[in-house]
Amino acid sequence: MKIALDAGHGYKANSPTGARGNNLIEDDLALKIVHKLRWYLLQAGVEVTLTRPDQAFVALGIRGTLAKSKQCDMFISIHINASSNSDASGVEALAAENDHHSADFAKKLLDVIVQHGLKRRGVKWDSQSQHSKLRVLRDTYKAMPAALLEIGFITNTCDAAKLRNEKWLDELANDLADVINSPQHTK
Ligand SMILES: [Zn+2]
To answer: 151 C-alpha vs ligand 1 centroid, how far in Å?
Structure first.
């Protein structure tokens, strides 16, 4: 099995392009989660392609192309949400509009994350996202199940406390790797 892991955003000219809040940076958190997840997946014998392996921004169009050229069986993009309302919290998963196969895959991932104490905001179509019609999902969903996870709100103090807890991140990555490594997702 092969999986593409996509760490959202990335730095341009030494500045992060993702969200910030509570002294956390989305770009850094996404990269950290992706590397932890990669480590657990490698232990399980899963082949992992990282679309953004380090701090540097990678053009969105390149990410999906890489996942397809490596013939990955699934695509997961990792983000952290943000809101001007600091009460907004929880996890949501996005899938390309009307792709029910990806939505089922996204729900399995969401089910794991809520077990780690984040509020369930549900699975949404990408047209409902503030960044509607997410490029990385549109580029990949016809070839493989593709989900974008918004793992908590960087702007919420309770979510941020979890996101800066290494043990919480490790346990989350371990459990996500287990569900990814179950065989029923591939097309
Ligand atoms: Zn993001």
So the answer is: 10
Rg (CA), the chain: 15
Q: Which residue has the higher pLDDT, 120 or 185?
A: 120
CATH assignment at residue 25: 3.40.630.40
Query: If you measure from the C-alpha of residue 80 to the centroid of ligand 1, how many angstroms do you get, rounded to a whole number?
Result: 6
**pLDDT of 61-105, one tens digit each?**
999 999 999 999 999 999 999 999 999 999 999 999 999 999 999
Q: How far is the CA of 2 from the centre of ligand 1 (A)?
A: 23
CA of 42 to the centre of ligand 1 (A): 25
Cα–Cα distance list, 172 to 17, 35, 120 (Å): 24, 12, 15
Q: Tell me the mean pLDDT in the region 116-129.
A: 94
What's the gap in Å between 107 CA and the centre of ligand 1? 19
Please give the tally of structural domains in the chain. 1
> 23: domain range?
2-185
pTM of the complete model = 0.96
| 3-state secondary structure string across 117-154 | CCCEEEEEEHHHCCCCCCHHHHHHCCCCCEEEEEEEEC
Ligand 1 center to residue 25 CA distance, Å? 10
From the CA of 118, how far away is ligand 1's center (Å)?
Answer: 17
